[in-house]
C-alpha cells in the first residue's frame, strides 16, 4: 500500500541531518543520516550528491549535534546568515553514506594527482581548438561519475568540440563551469599580505561587492597594489569594518560646521573617525587648528556644504568596482 502524504511528512520531520562542506567550491548542504551520535573527532565523510559520490568535511562537529541532530534547524541557520547580511542558501543536498576511511582519503589524494594530468590534457585540447579560455582547475568526483573543469573567459565560449574530446579521452561525463576572478582566488589562493590564508578560501561563503568608498572611509591607501587581493580586486576585508566606520562617521559634524569649544568658536576642518576627534580652526585665530574630542564640542550651525568625499558618489563607486558575478554553469 502506498505511503500517505501525512506519513511521509511525519517521517521527514523526524529525519536527522548533518551539515557538510563539499566540492572544490566548498558548498554547504544538509545530508540525511541515521546515526544516533555524531563523532566529535576530525572526521571526513562520504556523501551522495546529485553529482555522484563525494568526500566532504563535517561542519560544526563540536557541541553542534545532539542525539545525531544538528542543534540549529534550517530556518535558524538561514536567519543567522540573514542577520549578518549574508545571502545564504543551504539546501538538502543528498545523504550521508559513511565516515571516510584511510583508504578513501588515499583514493582522494590519488584522484587529485590524476586531476593535474587531466588539467594539462584539457589545456592541450584548448590550444589545439584555439579556444579563448583559461583552464583554472579540475575536480574529479570521488565516485568517478564526472569530471568538472573550471575555466575563465571574457565571454561565452563554444566548447562542444572540447567536451567531445574530453569525453572520448576519459569515458565519463564532462562538466564545464565558467567562473570569475574571485572564484579563481577561492580555488587557487594561498596566503594574503596579512599573513593569513585568503578569506574566500578559508571561511567566506558569500563574496559581496567591495567599493572604493570603503577604502576612502577607512583612510586606507588608495594604491591599487596595496588594497587589491589575490584576485586583483579590492580586498574583501574592507567590508568587515565598513558598518562600524559608517556609524561612527554619522556622529561627527560635517566639515565646515560651526562649533563651540571651551576656548571659543570655530569651524570643523577635519576629523578622525575611529578616535572621534575633530580638528577645529578657531575664529579670528592665526594659530594652527586645535584637536578636540567630539563630546567636548557643541554644534552651533550645521554646514551647508556637501557631505565628505567618502559619502559622495556611492553609486558611481560601486559601478566602478562591481562584483565579478559568476556566470551561469554550462553543463554538458
Summarize the structure.
Among the domains are: about 15-100, no CATH class; about 105-180, GMP Synthetase, Chain A, domain 3, CATH 3.30.300; about 255-305, SH3 type barrels, CATH 2.30.30.
Residues in helices, as a percent range: 25-40%
pLDDT < 50 stretches: 7-11, 305-332
Tell me the distance between the termini.
39 Å
The number of helical segments is 10
Query: Strands of the largest sheet, in order across it?
Result: 1-2-7-3-4
Describe this entry's structure for a reader:
This protein has 332 residues and is of the alpha+beta class. Among the domains are: 16-100, no CATH class; 105-178, GMP Synthetase, Chain A, domain 3 (2-Layer Sandwich), CATH 3.30.300; 255-306, SH3 type barrels (Roll), CATH 2.30.30. Helix content is 29%, strand content 27%. A five-stranded mixed β-barrel has the order 1-2-7-3-4. It has a five-stranded antiparallel beta sheet with strand order 14-13-12-11-15, with no helix packed on it. A four-stranded mixed beta sheet has the order 8-9-10-16, with helices on both faces. A hairpin with a 2-residue loop joins strand 5 (65-66) and strand 6 (69-70). Mean pLDDT is 81; it is low at 7-11 and 305-332.
What is the topological layout?
Blueprint lengths: L4 H9 L2 E7 L4 E7 L10 E6 L2 E7 L6 E2 L2 E2 L3 H10 L7 E9 L2 H27 L5 E7 L5 E7 L7 H11 L2 E6 L2 H8 L10 H4 L9 H6 L6 H4 L14 H10 L6 E4 L2 E9 L4 E6 L7 E4 L4 E4 L12 H7 L9 E2 L1
